[in-house]
Design a protein that fits this description.
The chain contains 24 helices and twelve strands. The protein is globular.
């Protein structure tokens, strides 16, 4: 007993001393730490010296250059509805800028301040001048590692003022319609209509066979760009915009946005420092990702320019015809070539030149070179050219492993660990069942759905994930037990929603979705109903005994729902609107009531022809003829 009391007293004393030490640090050493953060980011954003650049020699290699008509659209006078749309497109949960006003404030008071906001924003677009106060930025530091020990372990996220965000969102909207034309298919980030999975799938295909010695020697360089957004040279960025023939007025807008920014840092709930920058793009600025994509597109053009003038360069296996050398998603860069000294030297020189021009240099510690088994003779020489360590497969790319064999349980360990980490972070929140259900649907499920877009997950992995989600739902953690409802029942569709009940009664009138009147719907509801015709072309129904289908309301017939073709059918036949299809089927044969007021024979004939045609497609013409002769 005495020893237990002594242990408790010792622990209490240690905790008290820790609290005193922390208080002393906040009062004394905390000032030194704050100064360290401010000086670090002041140096990071202020290390570039401006000088003009010209990249117009790359124009012949560009996929597209902006036309005069497109330039006119980009710089057209800004309308009030554009300003309002841009504001209401900002997430209400996004952090406010230094002025302290979030987008929800502007939305709630739009009727009062809307006109003033519009005038302020139009002033910028009309005269190209931006008040520095509007472009003030608050840096919030997010740790990049589990236990940060130095300033470099934090990622600066820029919290911009709402007025500024509206301006850049309008500019982004005007850029997006030409972005797909400008950006080559080797780059998929932030380009409308392109998917991150395309990068992963292509990289997976190119690295398949790296474990075989009989295939040609190949190498892949996985490049990590050091402090990518923070290091972009402004003059290089403006030269890239001129390269693609963005109008001078738009370029002036961009220059105002990036050069008039000022920064303060939020630490421990207080704001520290005030400094400006001479380089970099702000993470948190709506336009930054799109400008960065254009900068990375210039790397692709530099590669094309260099390769065209080099007859000795050897492409990666199965890449020459499509001209695949680089694959890029934001700052995740892969380079491909044949594993020979000259080809590796060419890519290294391009990377070095790009770094000097743009400020984006490769991080030698985090980059790596991957070799096929047939490239053992040149591995050391190529490694020495790049100065990168040799990597091994599987290697992580865009959050998933690139592998040369079938996906194993070990390969999926990062996926399971990520789900466990999310659950562990929620364990202390005392969530209700409803809250945990929502997190499973909106967060946890999306984690492995991304993997499923690229891989077919092993059954064991799916069962493990289901078990962890099940345990989190009922127990709030990953331990087993305490289930109140079968997991299969949780996954079933929910029909008891009050919204579903209202829709069923007033919109579907206790019928089915197929019989709903799209003219009476509004908003996204009309869009869903308008897709009925397209959807039904790709659907085939197995009627069976007809008990699961509504005679008039379901599209079991190739002509669609019968109620649309015969609106008075229920009245003239005496068969109620909600009659099942089995009402007119007896012992596998049609058994319709009266044929006087509705062409029943035509319905039956069309259905037979449809079935015979489908069987011919599936099983051949001979079987279709036999079934037709037997009067299916």
């Amino acid at each position: 007993m005495l020893s237990d009391d002594l242990c408790k007293a010792t622990i209490m004393e240690v905790n008290m001393l820790k609290q005193r030490a922390k208080l002393a640090w906040l009062k004394g050493e905390g000032t030194a730490v704050t100064a360290e953060f401010v000086n670090y980011f002041k140096k990071l954003f202020g290390g570039s010296h401006r000088h003009s650049q010209n990249l117009e020699y790359l124009q012949p290699f560009a996929k597209h250059l902006i036309s005069e008509e497109e330039a006119t659209q980009i710089t057209a006078p800004v309308q009030r509805h554009e300003i309002k749309d841009a504001l209401f497109d900002i997430n209400e949960d996004s952090a406010p800028g230094p002025d302290g006003f979030s987008s929800s404030f502007f939305k709630a008071t739009w009727a009062v301040i809307g006109e003033d906001v519009c005038r302020a924003i139009m002033e910028f677009f009309n005269h190209g001048r931006l008040l520095k106060q509007l472009n003030a930025t608050l840096l919030t530091l997010i740790p990049k590692v589990q236990m940060p020990t130095k300033v470099g372990d934090f990622r600066p996220i820029s919290c911009c003022n709402v007025i500024y965000k509206i301006i850049t969102k309008i500019m982004v909207k005007r850029m997006q319609f030409v972005l797909e034309k400008l950006i080559d298919n080797c780059q998929n980030a932030f380009v409308p209509g392109r998917s991150i999975s395309d990068n992963v799938l292509l990289a997976q295909e190119l690295l398949s066979g790296y474990n075989q010695k009989k295939l040609p020697p190949r190498c892949t360089i996985k490049v990590d760009l050091q402090k990518a957004y923070d290091m972009v040279d402004w003059d290089y960025l403006l030269a890239v915009l001129r390269l693609f023939r963005f109008p001078n007025r738009f370029i002036a807008w961009v220059e105002q946005c990036i050069t008039t920014a000022s920064f303060s840092i939020s630490l421990n709930g207080t704001i520290h420092g005030f400094f400006t920058s001479t380089r970099g793009l702000r993470q948190g600025d709506p336009i930054s990702p799109y400008l960065f994509v254009l900068v990375m597109e210039s790397l692709h053009l530099l590669i094309k320019h260099k390769i065209q003038n080099d007859d000795i360069f050897q492409h990666h296996w199965r890449c020459k015809e499509l001209g695949i050398i680089n694959l890029c998603f934001a700052d995740d860069l892969l380079l491909f070539c044949k594993a020979d000294i000259h080809s590796a030297t060419v890519l290294h020189d391009i990377l070095q030149n790009f770094g000097v021009l743009s400020g984006l240099h490769a991080n030698a510690q985090k980059s790596q070179v991957l070799f096929s088994k047939s490239a053992t003779q040149v591995q050391q020489q190529i490694q020495s050219i790049f100065g990168f360590p040799q990597g091994t497969l599987p290697v992580r790319y865009l959050g998933v492993p690139l592998i040369t064999s079938k996906l194993s349980l070990a390969d999926c360990a990062p996926l399971i660990l990520k789900i466990e980490a999310r659950i562990a972070g929620w364990n202390q929140l005392n969530l209700t069942y409803a809250g945990r259900t929502q997190l499973i649907k909106s967060v946890l499920s999306s984690i492995h759905q991304y993997w499923c877009s690229v891989f077919i997950l092993p059954k064991g992995v799916i069962k493990t994930i289901d078990a962890k989600l099940r345990n989190f739902l009922w127990r709030g953690g990953t331990e087993r037990g305490g289930y109140k409802v079968a997991w299969e029942q949780i996954l079933e569709k929910k029909h008891d929603s009050i919204w579903v009940s209202w829709i069923t009664k007033y919109k579907l009138r206790h019928g089915t979705l197929w019989a709903a009147n799209e003219k009476k719907a509004h908003g996204y509801g009309r869009n869903y109903l308008n897709s009925e015709i397209k959807l039904i072309k790709g659907i085939r129904f197995q009627v069976g005994d007809g008990t699961d289908f509504k005679l008039w309301l379901d599209p079991w017939h190739p002509d669609g729902t019968l109620i649309h073709r015969y609106p008075h059918g229920p009245l003239v036949t005496g068969l109620p609107l909600d009659s099942p299809l089995s009402t007119v089927i007896v012992d596998g044969h049609w058994n319709w009531p009266s044929e006087n007021h509705i062409d029943i024979n035509e319905i039956i004939k069309n259905y037979r022809l449809f079935i015979v045609a489908l069987l011919i497609i599936l099983y051949g013409k001979q079987l279709g003829n036999i079934l037709h002769e037997r009067r299916l």
